[in-house]
Design a protein that fits this description.
The longest helix has 17 residues, at about 15-30. The protein has helices spanning about 15-30, 60-75, 90-100, 115-120, 120-130, and strands spanning about 5-10, 30-40, 45-50, 50-55, 80-85, 105-110, 135. With about 140 residues, the protein is of the alpha/beta class.
């Protein structure tokens, strides 16, 4: 299987563990790994004084998270790309997978048991709404 595998990250240890599972799948299947971090607002803040200013936005922070995780997943022979996607995490992952014609989305199983299962989870939403295959990685014990 070639193609693209999309994985969602948010900077948490559980997302990192899911990303590592996605990397291993991508290597085994000869696929490209696309790391995505979602953001839901257009909030932007400016810090500093005088000519020294820093602009911090939710989109920029999400892209930084995706870039940092992507850099940490790099191994020989694997193409890793990254992006930030606007929307709630499950919706953003599904839209990004559709946009890139991904063959698979990888998510962690966080909140798949107990009360979280009743309230919903990213994995549950992706599994029920994605137009491609979904792999739910076991991320228990990561936090």
């Amino acid at each position: 299987m070639s193609g693209i595998i999309v994985v969602g990250v948010d900077g948490s240890a559980t997302a990192r563990k899911a990303a590592e599972a996605a990397r291993d799948l991508a290597v085994a299947l000869g696929a490209t790994l696309h790391v995505v971090s979602a953001f839901d607002t257009d909030r932007t803040e400016v810090y500093g004084s005088g000519s020294d200013k820093w602009i911090v936005s939710d989109a920029g922070e999400a892209e930084k998270v995706a870039r940092d995780v992507a850099a940490g997943l790099a191994v020989a022979g694997l193409t890793v790309t990254y992006s930030a996607a606007r929307g709630k995490p499950a919706d953003a992952l599904i839209k990004e997978a559709d946009r890139s014609s991904a063959r698979m989305i990888v998510v962690g199983n966080r909140r798949m048991h107990g009360l979280g299962r009743v309230l919903g989870s990213v994995a549950n939403s992706v599994a029920h709404n994605a137009s491609c295959d979904v792999y739910i990685a076991n991320t228990y014990g990561a936090d």
